[in-house]
Fold:
Amino acid sequence: MKDSKDIVKELIQWYKENARDLPWRRTKNPYHIWLSEIMLQQTRVEAVKPYFQRFLQTCPTIEALANTEEDTLLKLWEGLGYYSRVRNLQKAAKTVVDEYGGALPQDYHALRKLKGIGPYTAGAIASIAFSLPYAAVDGNVLRVMSRLTADERDITLASTKGAWEEELSSMMPTGDEGNFTQGLMELGATVCLPNGNPKCEICPVRKYCQAYRKNAVLQFPVKSPKKERTKEYLSVFFLVHRKKIALQKRDGKGLLSGLWQLPNCNQEKALPVALSEWGILSGNIKDMKAQKHIFTHIEWHMSCYFVEVENENKDFLWLSKETVENEYALPSAFKKIWQEGCSLLED
DNA sequence: AATCCGGGGTC
DNA sequence: GACCCAGGATT
Structure:
């Protein structure tokens, strides 16, 4: 790549002077780096901050993580999304304990074999924690490099990402591996922003940027459109019996697997039928505010009902507000309904 | 190569 | 509403 040596040098210099002070940048503990990189997958820095510290208080070491109850881990991950991340994290922790004596292997290919560690995360841990010459290519890096070189290749293609992984690994500066990796991502996160507001006027590598030179920054990166979401229509129930609220564990597979939810069914089913199939003697049904929740590939349109029922069935758990909030992982999709239901409970 | 898997910020 | 994101596993 043209001017690559100079670009690397400028970028590292800029990063050293402008790096944000983040909790996981104050440590060289590979486990902490690992945890932060998993939490940061598809997730913004500000969202991760409160979770990172709290998680480490409960799981201060890889061995502690390996031995923590899964429900506890899900509660720690509650609201962060992509819950398979924390299951895979624990699987990997057990592997690290069993096969590596509780310390992460200082080897890219060994890291890559651990559950939940893909090309990006392996590169991030290798370069940041172990000063190994492996690039970490994420969405930020692809955007930065696409603009810097006015690269027309579609960044959603695996081939494009693979090419940048090789190219950037070959550019990796000895002694500044972690700074290079983090500098690229920091530039993407704070300067080379997506959409309409890249801050080219403060960019440390502007003079090398081909897209800037062509006055075409917003034409990069090139990416193919993504598929549209399907809509699902649900009836969701806040069922109450003697101040206890019904909670149901979701299936072990698929969306939000293993988390807890308010009982719900397809909107096509009549409400009294749904309740009777659950063995609930229906009481007074009050309408609650309708809710919409958007996932990556699904939209939930929820009609919501507050129902004071006459009996507790055995398919659900009937729990107090406090118990649920302290111990059960409830996905964000249900949070607003939960809040409204609890306030109705007060009356 | 396509699909599945959360959630929140921004314009 | 549209777009984006510090991705990886599964098929």
The two ends of chain A are 67 Å apart (CA to CA). The first helix of chain A runs from residue 4 to 18.
